[in-house]
Every structure is written in C-alpha cells, then in structure tokens.
Amino acid sequence: MSADARRRVGLLCNPYAGCGRDRILGLTRQAFDCLAPQAEIFVGPGDLGANACSGAAVTVVGRDDTRTRSDTIATAQAFIARGVELVVIVSGDGTYNDALAGMKAADMTVPIFGIAAGRFNTLFPGRKHDPFVSLRGEFRPFRLTDLVIDDVPGLLVHVNGAVAGYGVFWTVVSNLLAYSDAGGRSMTVDAARMLAGDVVPLSTAWPVAGDATRIVIHSRTLGEIELARGRDISMPVVAHIVPEIGQVLAGGFGTYAEFMGFHGVAYYFPNRDIPFLPTPEFFPVTTRAAGFFAGDEVRYTGLEDGAVLQIDSTPICVLHRDDVLTVQVVHALGKKARLPA
C-alpha cells in the first residue's frame, strides 16, 4: 500500500495534565511507535506532541504558542484540514473536549481514542461513563483495524447564540473552580484567573445571581418551565443523564430523572451562601431540579457580572449581565474509538 493510501492519524498530548510531563510524553512516544507502522502520523507542535516524537518522521501541524485551550482547538482543526480520520489523545478529559471543539469548528467530527493521563480519568478508573478514554495505566499496543466506533452523548453550550464549548459531563456557573495541584492537594481556585493560566487559590464565591436572573427550560415536549428566578441561586448545574452522574445530582434526582426517561437535569441550590459544594454547616441541603429531553434548551439570563462558565471543570469564559447562556443535550455529540470488549 502506498503512503498516500495509508490512514491518517493525529497524535496529541497535554504534558500539563495530572500524570505529569515525563509520563505523558512517554505514553505519547509509545503511541507513536505503535501507530507509525500502521498510518501516516500528524502531531501537534512542541509540547502538544512533537517533543515526544523528536527524530521521528512525522508531520507537525497546529499551534503551541498560547499555552491555553485555544492551541488544542487550533491543532485539532489543523488535523481535520490534513484529512485525519482518527485523533489519539494522551491527556485528561478537558483536552478531549477542546479537540472536539476544534473538530466541530472544522465541520467534521472524527473519533477520539483517549489514553488516560489526567487527574480525574486516572483517579476514578472504575467509572462506567468514560466518554473518550480507551486505554488506562500501562500502554498496550493496538491495531487500527480492530477499533470500534461509538457515539458519545454530551452538552452543546452557547453564549449569545455562538458556540462556547462542548461537554461530556456537566456545565456549572461559578467563579470557584475545583483544582488539584501536582502533589494531589485539592483546593478551589479563581476560575477567571485560571482562564489566563494563573492558579490563584480562592475560597469565597461571589453570587452568580441577582434580582433579574432566570433559569428557564424551553422544551418541545414539556413547554416552558421556570426553574429559578431571583437572587437565591447557587451553583447552577446542567448535566446529561448517565447512571453514575444521575446518582449524585440534586440529591439523587438524577436517578429519578433517568428512570423517567429524561436525557438531562438542571438544578441549583436555593441558598446563595453555599459557596461551591455544600459543607456540613449547610446541612440539610435543599436542591431544586428539573428534567428535560435532548434538544430542549436550558436558558440562563440576568446572571451577575463576573460569573464564570465552566464545562467539565474547565473554565470557558466570564459572563456578563446581558449575556444569554443556553445548554442542550445532544445524543451524538462526538465519537469514541475503543478496543473491542
């Protein structure tokens, strides 16, 4: 078979993910050694892949100059422009979402084969819903001809009608972001500062809601449901329904919503003093929730200036009072390549 007829594969990594630079670059090199005899390989520049494949015959495309998620998005777009049919990613969940955003911007969604290297997707290896991860732990060689392709459900998020991002777990509006440092120490940090790459510990959240705030579900089946109005709104969340997420949402309401056939849940704490996740001094904790279907729209209006949109624990943008935030569940948001069972 000629080189022109070989499959084209993109290889991307994030050496700043939770497993640490040396291990992630090592896994990326192993992935390259596995893939090179099977396909034409395109890699991201610098720390996005090329640094793990130095001396190898690869084609470097994309960007690695801002050290932000925009580099990943641009590199995924470049992969699509070069005809890549599969993207292999060594990273955490957030990088998968960013690569998906790049594909969507290029108007073509190809499968992702994920090699777990983040804090979350390595700490919880037994989770049932694993959107893009196909390999964990030690690297195991695989054949491209053996891969099985599945649809991945998720969330489509807009701000003022423009796509803001894609998620596979949930969205939340808060200026506090859950974070763990290189030593595994958990904390909350300033989500707005994290947008610029600055890790600034922060324990006090300012309110995200004011007198004009509304959260409304616009459903083709259920009509219009006003979930919340006014100032007493903390940690508003939208999630799509999969079993392990359903069990923890809104005091178990997610499990009920799944049983009833809903595809998503929107909920919040009606206590604006709860800063992030409720601690014992707030017990018993009240939540308010509603289920909805794929294609329905959860719409936020009148949020306070400075609230930060987060998708799957990645800060996306700072919101302002006049912004309109909408979230929808999509059944086939992305595609996962996996090894057969």
Describe this structure in words.
The protein has about 350 residues and is α+β, with helices and mostly antiparallel strands. The radius of gyration is 20 Å and the shape is globular. It starts with 6 loop residues before the first strand and ends with a strand. It folds into 2 domains: about 5-145, Probable inorganic polyphosphate/atp-NAD kinase, domain 1 (Rossmann fold, 3-Layer(aba) Sandwich); about 160-330. The protein contains 7 helices and 20 strands. The strands form 4 sheets. The protein has a 6-stranded parallel sheet with strand order 3-2-1-4-5-6, sandwiched between helices. Strands 8-7-20-17-12-13 form a 6-stranded antiparallel sheet, covered by helices on one side. Strands 16-15-14-9-18-19 form a 6-stranded antiparallel sheet. The mean pLDDT is about 90. About 20% of the residues lie in helices and about 35% in strands.
Q: What is the distance, rounded to the nearest whole angstrom, between the alpha carbons of the first and last residues?
A: 29 Å
Could you give the count of β-strands? 20
Mean pLDDT: 91
Helix content: 10-25%
Shape: globular
Query: Can you count the helices?
Result: 7
Strands in their spatial order, largest beta sheet:
3-2-1-4-5-6
Estimate what percentage of residues fall within beta strands. 35-45%
Regions with little confidence, pLDDT below 50 for 5+ residues: none
Cα gyration radius (Å): 20 Å
What are the secondary-structure elements, in order, as H or E?
EHEEHEHEHEEEEEEHEEEHHEEEEEE
Summarize the main sheet.
6 strands, parallel
